[in-house]
Specification:
Blueprint (H helix, E strand, L loop, with lengths): L4 H18 L6 E3 L1 H14 L2 H11 L3 H16 L4 E10 L6 H6 L4 E5 L3 H15 L18 E14 L5 E5 L11 E8 L5 E6 L2 E8 L5 E7 L6 H12 L6 E2 L6 E4 L2 E8 L5 E7 L1 E8 L28 E14 L3 E14 L9 E9 L4 E7 L5 E7 L13 H15 L1
Parallel strand pairs: 2-3, 13-17
Antiparallel strand pairs: 1-19, 2-4, 4-16, 5-6, 6-13, 7-8, 7-10, 8-9, 9-18, 11-12, 12-17, 14-15, 15-16, 18-19
Helix pairs in contact: 1-7, 2-3, 2-4
Length: 421
């Protein structure tokens, strides 16, 4: 994926700032600044006055460079195997668009808003579901009817799917302590000789342990565990700085024995082979996030442009426009075989007013367990762009399979007899 380092830094900066604000809540969530940033960029390109300056500050790039950077970013994302990026623009038929602004947009679909909120929502929902393979079923946008209703909707959809190079094994397990203690969970286990998949970074709120889970598409997922009393935002912040190489992290092969990081134990043990061994344990999880970006309008550079008393985007249209809605819906799933994530972001503008073998070797053994709330980061390996970030507070519970009926048991026995014959 080829993109400017300045764009990667700008998107990661927004991710870190979002994590810091959203991380005061200890509830499970997922969000992607990589889905918001390409929408703020064309808004900044077409904005004027205080709204333009505020959007440029949120983007971390000058407004005049924003549209080109967004176009490059979306093209690069679309070139990553397993990652799909799409954009859409919908406008009322009577809304004149500035030709120069439209030409600078990234390629994408362009539809027409009918003015009926119900009918338009059906069309937008269908687009969101189609672009995310059904992971996000509704367009996160508030539409308004009437002559002064929604005039423009700008949306992005990101869908990520990666399979683990080395799958996990899943079985029933329980956490030994913490808020998940005693709960039956779908736990994932894996052993590897690559000890340095685990590492520890020191952050403002203490040590943070990271586990890198390598995907087959060039996108990896990093699980991030902090101290028990650290806020999610602090843990994610340290994790983001570590995976983007802005903060150093010490690999497990160089860490002292004992417990050098949260959830991480290292010791020298007698083993049947000389290779080191890392044992990792984490739960299966699925998290969803619904974010009203206007609740953090200043973070996203939308405080000025939501003022309906006047227009803010003369470079978009000669009609005065103000931001009326800005939302994101996201989902992430982590399981034995891989990871999937999807996010749809939309901005709407309205009119402004066995037997053990013989032991022979002493070797290093590390064990890392994510058995209490933790964070995760999906990161493109070569560019270090953070594609998604989130927090896991409620992993998926293990459910006993239903008892088989007598008829099912008899059928299975009959099938076994047929196979033997």
């Amino acid at each position: 994926m080829n993109m400017r380092n300045s764009t990667v830094r700008a998107v990661n900066r927004l991710t870190a700032r979002w994590a810091a604000e959203a991380g005061g809540e200890a509830t499970g969530t997922v969000f992607t600044a990589a889905g918001v940033w390409p929408l703020l960029a064309p808004l900044a390109d077409g904005a004027a006055g205080p709204a333009r300056a505020e959007l440029a500050e949120a983007l971390g790039l000058p407004a005049e460079r924003a549209a080109g950077a967004a176009r490059e970013l979306l093209a690069a994302l679309g070139g990553v195997r397993g990652l799909r990026a799409a954009t859409g623009l919908w406008t009322r038929a009577d809304l004149p668009l500035e030709a120069a602004w439209r030409e600078r947009l990234a390629p994408g679909s362009h539809g027409v808003l009918s003015g009926s909120a119900e009918a338009d929502h059906k069309a937008l929902d269908a687009w969101a579901a189609r672009q995310t393979h059904g992971l996000v079923e509704r367009m996160p946008v508030t539409l308004t009817d009437g002559p002064n209703g929604t005039r423009l909707v700008l949306a992005s959809a990101l869908t990520l799917s990666t399979r683990w190079i080395q799958p996990f094994t899943e079985w029933h397990g329980e956490a030994s302590a913490g808020p998940w203690a005693g709960r039956p969970l779908r736990m994932l286990h894996r052993n590897t000789a690559l000890l340095d998949r685990a590492r520890v970074a020191e952050g403002p709120a203490g040590a943070v342990t990271l586990l890198e889970v390598v995907g087959d598409t060039g996108v990896d997922v990093h699980l991030v565990l902090g101290e028990p009393d650290a806020w999610p935002g602090e843990v994610l912040g340290t994790g983001i700085e570590s995976v983007t190489r802005a903060r150093p992290a010490v690999p497990a092969s160089l860490l002292p024995e004992g417990r050098p990081g949260p959830g991480l134990d290292i010791a020298t043990v007698l083993a049947p082979a000389p290779e080191p061994r890392l044992t990792a344990r984490a739960p299966v999880f699925e998290v969803r996030g619904e974010h009203d970006l206007l609740e953090r309008a200043r973070l996203f550079g939308l405080e000025e442009s939501r003022d309906t008393g006047r227009g803010h985007f003369p470079g978009v249209s000669s009609q005065p426009l103000a931001v009326g809605s800005a939302r994101q819906s996201a989902v992430a799933r982590f399981h034995a075989e891989g990871f999937e994530a999807a996010a749809v972001t939309a901005v709407a503008a309205a009119v402004g007013c066995g037997v053990p073998p013989r032991i022979r070797y002493r070797t290093r053994r590390a064990e890392v367990a994510f058995d209490r709330p933790f964070g995760f980061l999906a990161v493109h390996r070569t560019s270090r762009l953070v594609l998604a970030a989130g927090w896991v507070s409620d992993p998926l519970a293990y459910e006993e399979p239903p008892e088989k009926t007598l008829e099912e048991k008899l059928r299975e026995e009959a099938e076994d007899w047929e196979e033997e014959e």
